[in-house]
Amino acid sequence: MSLPEYFTPDLLTVISTNRCTAECKHCCMNSGFKRKEKVSTETALITIKKLHELFHIKCVVFAGGEPTLHKDLLSEAIPLCKSLGINSRLITNASWASNYGKTKKYLHELYESGLDELNISFDDYHAKFIDPKNIVNAWNASKEINFKSVYIANSQDYRSKITSSYIMNLLGENLPLRFDDDGKSTIVFDKENKNIGISNSKIMYLFKGMDEIDPDLPHFSQTALYMPCHNIIKRLALNPFNHIIGCCGFELKNNEFLDFGPVDGNDLQRLLIDASDDIIIKALYRFGPGFLLRYAARYNSDIKIRKNYNSICEVCYDLMHQKVASDFINEHCTDIAKILFTAEHR
Ligand code: SF4
After folding, report:
1. What's this model's pTM, rounded to 2 decimal places?
2. Both 97 and 230 in a single domain?
3. What share of the chain is helix, strand, coil (3-state, %, to 5)?
């Protein structure tokens, strides 16, 4: 038995650690100084090899927290990706880049070990912990190294100080923006050329950042409420607890829908096939979290839907973190299966 094409994984994010040198309120992974978890290097290597063998995945992303705090993982997994022909990408806050000479040396070592792509996170929340000089150092040093792509990842809303224009001023360069106002990628990746720019996205109000939602946010299109999720299983993640999870939308520790279980001691292919057979996973793929949230809210007025959603993962968070909503969809799996059946056989 195999996975249907639309669920076949092509990317793995290794959420190497929840520990971070910054305490960003809007971090999807709920990371911070006090978190201690780290993925096992051995489990990460086994997972990468297995996903290569089964599905020929194209890309492994090293994220956190701050993945450069997990040096042994990077020093083994990046060369492994290179040897298997898998693209590797590092997402970092550049906390290590205070000295230009050392920054250049570190990036050169990463490149020599096989790293293909660099993403540097910088926005209002990181700026409280990271000196802008570090971003300039990492950016300028990366230009002397032949990475396939280098992006500054910037999350912003209408109140943000650190915007795409701020970053361009800081770096003294005009840079392409990766996304348009609707979040659609406007950049065509060219394998032959180096791609650089700003990966501009809207802030995700998750975890600690929930307290900061402006009740009078300017209204914008609520497409996130109506979108299906085509990342699920296709863009898998391994979390710092060594569990394989359906995506990296937010911290999915023990999530009853999207935590597929520990890699150690399990057959990874079996875990993924079981997940792909699950009614809620299929409904997330086909209809999206907004459909399930609105379906549940129609029958239970205790279930809340926010006025504004910045991203589909915020909608998913509200579906899975309101117990009354997640209980409702669990209890109504048979009805959801019937809706799916009808949609698939129309
Ligand atoms: S919408 Fe849900 S399933 Fe899809 S990527 Fe976001 S958190 Fe994951």
Report:
1. 0.96
2. yes
3. 40, 15, 45
Domain that holds residue 136: 5-245
Q: Do the Cβ atoms of 39 and 239 come closer than 8 Å?
A: yes
Domain count, the chain: 2
State mean pLDDT over 303-316: 92
Encoded tokens for 279: 């009614």
Q: Is 290 in the pocket of ligand 1 (CB under 6 A)?
A: no
Structure-block tokens of residue 221: 């299109």
Ligand 1 centroid to 248 CA: how many Å? 7
Measured from the Cα of 316, ligand 1's closest atom is 2
Q: Are residues 231 and 330 in the same domain?
A: no
Residue nearest to atom 6 of ligand 1 (CA): 313
Same domain as 315, residue 239: no
Q: Where are the alpha helices (H) located in the chain, listed in sequence order?
A: 41-55, 71-84, 100-113, 124-127, 132-142, 164-171, 268-276, 279-286, 289-299, 312-321, 323-331, 333-344
Q: Is residue 261 part of a domain?
A: no
Tens-digit pLDDT profile for residues 155-200: 998 899 999 999 999 999 999 998 887 777 777 666 555 689 999 9
Task: Please name which of 132, 108, 126 lies closest in space to residue 118, comparing C-alpha atoms.
Answer: 108
Residues 233 and 288 in one domain: no
CB-ligand 1 contact for 229 (6 Å cutoff): yes
Map tokens 């409904």 to a residue. 283
Q: Are residues 111 and 206 in the same domain?
A: yes
Residue nearest to atom 7 of ligand 1 (CA): 249
Residue 161: give its domain's CATH number: 3.20.20.70
Distance in Å, CA 68 to ligand 1 centroid = 25
Q: Does the C-beta of 316 come closer than 6 Å to ligand 1?
A: yes
